[in-house]
Amino acid sequence: MIVPEASYQVRVSGVIPDEVLAELRDLTVSVEPPETVLHGSLPDQSAVVGLISRIHGLGLRLIEVRRLPAEEGPEIQPGPSL
């Protein structure tokens, strides 16, 4: 079974060092003191685990990992009933 790529939000306490951010260039990074928030698509569950392991190995405090809902197309409004 192939699992499609999914978007994730990862929250880390504090600020991630610049040299680590360089490795995470595929993710969007925003600092929302006192946290750093990473957003992006990861190809599979092993990539999620790898990111979590990297964060842990750096001694950073992981606050939250959340899989974001799939983006849905615009809602189609029903036309007038006849």
Give a written overview of the molecule:
This protein is α+β, with helices and mostly antiparallel strands. 23% of the residues lie in helices and 33% in strands. The protein is built from 2 helices and 4 strands; from the N terminus they run βαββαβ. The protein has helices at 18-23, 45-57; strands at 6-13, 28-32, 35-42, 62-67. The chain has a 4-stranded antiparallel beta sheet with strand order 2-3-1-4, with helices on one face. Mean pLDDT is 81; it is low at 72-82.
Q: Count every helix, treating DSSP H or I runs of 4 or more residues as helices.
A: 2
Segments where pLDDT lies below 50 for 5+ residues?
72-82
Give the N-to-C terminal Cα separation.
Answer: 44 Å
How is the biggest beta sheet arranged?
4 strands, antiparallel
* Secondary-structure-derived class: alpha+beta
| SSE order | EHEEHE
What is the beta-strand fraction? 25-35%
Q: Strand tally, please?
A: 4
Looking at the structure, what is the overall shape? globular
- What is the rounded Rg? 17 Å
What labels describe this entry?
82 residues; alpha+beta; four-stranded antiparallel sheet; 4 strands; 23% helix
Q: What is the gist of this entry?
A:
The protein is an alpha+beta fold and 82 residues long. The chain has helices at residues 18-23, 45-57, and strands spanning 6-13, 28-32, 35-42, 62-67.
Topology, element by element:
Layout: E1 6-13, H1 18-23, E2 28-32, E3 35-42, H2 45-57, E4 62-67
Antiparallel strand pairs: 1-3, 1-4, 2-3
